[in-house]
Amino acid sequence: MKNVLFALLALLATSAGAQTTLKFSDLLGRTTVRGVEFSDTVKKLNGRRVELRGFMAPPLKPKLDFFVLTKQPMATCPFCTTAADWPPDIVLVIMPPGRELDPSTRLLSVTGRLEIGVKRDDETGFVSLIRIYADRVTEQ
Amino acid sequence: MNKGIHRKPTLLMIALAGAASAATVGVQPYDGARFVAGQQFDLRVEVSGLKNVKSTVVTLDGKPVTGLAVTPGRDGGQNHMLRGLSLTRGQHTLAVTVTDDAGTTTRSATWTAEAPTYTARPAKNVILFIADGMGWNTVNAARIIARGYNAQNGNPNGLLSMETGLGGMATVTTSSYDSFLADSANTASSIATGQKVLVNALNVYPDNTDDALDNPRVETITEMLRRLRGAGVGLVSTAFGVDATPAAFAAHTRRRGDYQAIADQYFQGPAKPDVMLFGGSRDFIPSTAPGSRRRDDRNWIDESQKLGFQFVSNRTELLNAGGTKLFGLFNIDNVPSYLDRAQYRTKDMLGDFTDMPYLWDMTQKAVQTLEKNPNGFFLMVEAGMVDKYEHPLDWQRGVWDVLELDRAVDWAKQYARQHPDTLVLVTADHAHSISAYAGYDSSKQGREGVTTYEKGSFPTYTSKLDANGIPFPQTARGVAVGFAGTPDYCETYGSGPVFLDPTVSDGKGGFVPNPKICETPGAVRRVGNLGPADAQGVHSADPMPLFAFGAGAQNFTGMMDQTDIFFAIARSMNLARAGR
What we know:
- The structure holds 2 protein chains of 2 kinds.
- By secondary structure, chain A is mostly beta strands.
- Chain A has one helix spanning 40-45; strands spanning 20-22, 28-32, 35-38, 49-56, 66-70, 91-94, 108-120, 127-139.
- Chain A has one domain (20-139): CATH 2.40.50.870.
- Chain B has 2 domains: 24-114, Immunoglobulins (Immunoglobulin-like, Sandwich), CATH 2.60.40; 125-434 and 538-579, Alkaline Phosphatase, subunit A (3-Layer(aba) Sandwich).
- Chain B has 14 helices and 28 strands.
- In chain B, strands 14-15-13-12-16-10-17-27-11-28 form a 10-stranded mixed beta sheet, sandwiched between helices.
- The radius of gyration of chain B is 25 Å and the shape is globular.
- Residues 1-19 of chain B have low confidence and may be disordered.
């Protein structure tokens, strides 16, 4: 992959400030057959600025204003089928309005505001539990 | 892991040559359909290309069919629908005559209803094991691993339990209504109903509407047994609960991905299973619960208990259950492979689900619950993860789940010996292109370890067994197993304690070998032969085994099309007599 480095460097002075580094293993608390519980860590960081590293799931389109970040690289496109067997620990990354990026297969670092809770995207029908409103995405 | 692509449903439309009218007429059930006498189905006639229709006459064996609901069809056409028909023994002809300004068009379909000779010692109970994706070669690899050979003289040490003490045995081939290839939905539907069904469809015929849930339906063996005899019905699977194979015994939809509707049909449809034990709780919990896949607030865990089900969510609770209706969900998604549950036990693969049952636990408890019904029972047990790991080329996880299944079959065979009115069947829905193509010397890496002919020596898996009597995949002399149809991937001759997808997206609609797998020392990068859009292995057209034990097992022999399984079960149970 050539020069698809896409740093959307620090849009806002405030958001460029302190951030907490999250790991995929920090995201969820206990999972039971009745559903997934958020970890105390993400509950505490809800609304705050975080950094998370992971892989971009197979994208829906060539230019992205949102994508799914996963712990491991995956072959399944989350939007292409309702039948996907998704791990619960995936994160929806929403790009700032007007900012789009190219698909990537490399390890990504995503920084932005964390939001948790069940949310359904009206356009795609995709249900997300954890979202990052990104201000910065870089390839590692 | 079939992608559940929904193709526009179409009825087979044929304009008869020489007909004066330009109208085309489609009929479902299709010409040549076979039923068991008394089996219910929906009739649908779709007419298009009409010019001021004057009359549409539908007759069955020359007598007008009444009660057809008429709705507007496509392009000014008409749809005619009548639900819940059934036939008496013999051949029947449905004829449609359409007259419009341009003249007259006719179309007919011939159907056969079978009512075989009375069986003196019929089966009252059926335990049907379906290993998803277990073609003959998958069974063969499982046997080589589990039994091995006498290294002194080369004789095999024995057979799998599913291969011994047979009352009947067949080789099964399959195909779909719209392809010579097949998916788990239409294949399980063929076993459940005796019909050829569209890929990705469950127990319905095609129609011309977009609604996947309004298609003409055909009654399943489970629904017939419930309706005609009040028999009990049980569904068990290691896959998520609304996956295609269990769904084929209690649901109807054009689209197997209608998970929420399938979950609802389990509790509200005509099959009404008394026992449901599987993974995949996401389709049974309300949309407000993080992790749910539903779009409404329905909570079947809570509602099932109001309907009289005992609910269990782990192995301990399952083994202690004692009611007559049992609902068990053991994971939020698929239950991971036997190797993950019994041997590797990594946090990555198990998560918080550290007390999941084995397939033999589920089988045993399902039977013990269902046998309380004096009218008999039909239990379908799916080893659902064989296919789910064959798809991503993880042959070890897939084949070891056959060994787990074999222990469940062994218990069921004992049950059938003690209960001679029980028929036990073991088969698959479709195959994968798997092959035990060489031996493997694990003291070496990559291709250097592959051994052929006499250098293959004998596998050593049986030298060390786990607490369940099942070998470990790590052994000095192993088997090299692979697949004929693959994407580009890295071959490592085995898998590790954490499952990895064979490919990852290239970001442009294609796929590349998973770099994490390619990092394995000795990994062999292989160019694939499937299309660039395929990220994993696919179902093949290879043959499958069927092993039969107990009452009626003699009805399963020779070469069988998959639809024949339905008729042989009905024959073994004298089911058609009730519908004569």
